Amino acid sequence: MIINWIALYGKIETADGTVKHIPIPVAAEAPGTTQIPFSLARSNIQFESGNISFEVYLKDANSKCQLGLNQALPTEIYAGLNTGAPYGISLFTNRKWETLATTGFGDPPPINQWIAVKLKVIGSSIELFVNEVKVCTATTNVLKSQIGILFQSNTEITVINFSVES
Q1: Which of 27, 34, 50, 155 is a good FRET partner for 126, with 20 to 30 A between their CA atoms?
Q2: Three-class SS string for 133-159?
Q3: What is the pLDDT of residues 110-151, one digit of tens each?
């Protein structure tokens, strides 16, 4: 299966199965404020149930890398690193974030090393694994849609070995 990615917002580079967030300055919403650069990439892969796994390399402890489900639907699901806590699952609906499950207080996700991320979806159950450790579980409606990745960081974020088992 060939996975193609396109940036819907921000800048990404893709080559040889790698997806990379390239930070570009973002206009501030108000004078004196700053916004951390982000990218939203969407794939050609439709997903509803199964496993999604990849490895991610962060250079900054505050960097976000979140897998997106229910893309372009009224309620989008995001699961991964730095979702209000080091690890978590959240909903984005009506331009607002709602936390479903988070864990990890104190230490941020590791930096300058590859982190294995896996999402296991069975029906409405979502389990998030980081380095083969189940870090949180949530229940919400997962509908068939394209897979996305949300990146937010002042530094590059690299994703490799992206695989989908439906």
Answers
A1: 155
A2: EEEEEEECCCCCEEEEEEEECCCCEEE
A3: 999 999 999 999 999 999 999 999 999 999 999 999 999 999
